[in-house]
Amino acid sequence: MPWRLFLTYLQIGTFTIGGGYVMLALIQREVVDKHKWLDEKEFLNMIALAQAAPGLIAVNSAIFIAWRVSRNEAHRHQRLYSALCVMCAVLGAVLPSIVIILLIAMYFTQFKSLPVLESIFKGIRPAVVALIAATVIRLARKI
């Protein structure tokens, strides 16, 4: 289970551009639809808790989901196992961002004035807004 949580959140962190709220649609697809770790009502409650707690919504959701999933499994050392699951999910959620930020920091000064790069960033902005809007609409319908 820790490995599946790590890979799931690594995928979520890798293929989501635009922050935590954009991740919600992918988290829902993975956690509710694909793996069935939570149902719709639990997912909405998790979002409310993740938003209420301080910190990143992706990290907060990783903690909640990993803890919840690990508690459903019978394991001899339950607390240690749950902590391992939480650490794997959180690491999977933040590792892609850390790597991307480090790469950008290393090479950004060399490429920041390229017209192609400026165009790419201008093109990403509307896509991020659309992803956030789609997530808000989807969640509003369910509420």
Explained architecture:
This protein has one domain. Helix content is 83%, strand content 0%. The protein has helices at 2-14, 20-34, 40-52, 57-72, 78-111, 115-142. Helix 1 crosses helix 2 (20-34), helix 1 packs parallel to helix 5 and helix 4 packs antiparallel against helix 5 (78-111). The relative contact order is 0.17. The model has no long low-confidence stretch (mean pLDDT 86).
Looking at this protein, list some descriptive labels.
single chain, 143 residues, mainly alpha, 6 helices, globular
Q: Give the distance, in angstroms, between the N- and C-terminal Cα atoms.
A: 30 Å
Strand percent estimate: under 5%
Number of helical segments?
Answer: 6
Kindly provide the radius of gyration, computed on alpha-carbon positions and rounded to a whole number of angstroms: 17 Å
Largest sheet, described in full? Answer: none
How are the secondary structure elements laid out?
Elements: H1 2-14, H2 20-34, H3 40-52, H4 57-72, H5 78-111, H6 115-142
Helix pairs in contact: 1-2, 1-4, 1-5, 2-6, 3-4, 4-5
Gist of the model:
Helices cover 83% and strands 0% of the residues. The chain has 143 residues and is mostly helical. The protein has one domain.
